[in-house]
């Protein structure tokens, strides 16, 4: 099951990059997806994949809300924080985590540290003291 999710993720990325749903591009995308080497890691649990996809679904309305909030009340302060990567994440799940963080307008992942941390840039409202 996890292998199918990895193939689906790779194919989705291919279609997002090419923005072409012609028959030739679909055939090329499937070929590229199947020819890319597999990473020799332990397979992630199905519940981790489902949770990650749920986080993507939740991030869509959150992104709209944050975009409206920034337009109505501009944010002028910035902060760089370190967030811990959830334990035992496969490269595909790490990609989805980074995608969810970066998808919202107020946050972007600056760097993924191999020792298990994301460096996240956040835009926050200025707090007057």
Automatic annotation (TrEMBL):
Highest taxon, organism lineage: Bacteria
What Pfam families does this protein's entry cite? MNHE
Residue ranges spanning the membrane: these are 12-36
Entry's InterPro entries?
Cation_antiport_E
**Keywords annotated in UniProt:** Membrane, Transmembrane, Transmembrane helix
The identity of this protein, by name, is Na+/H+ antiporter subunit E
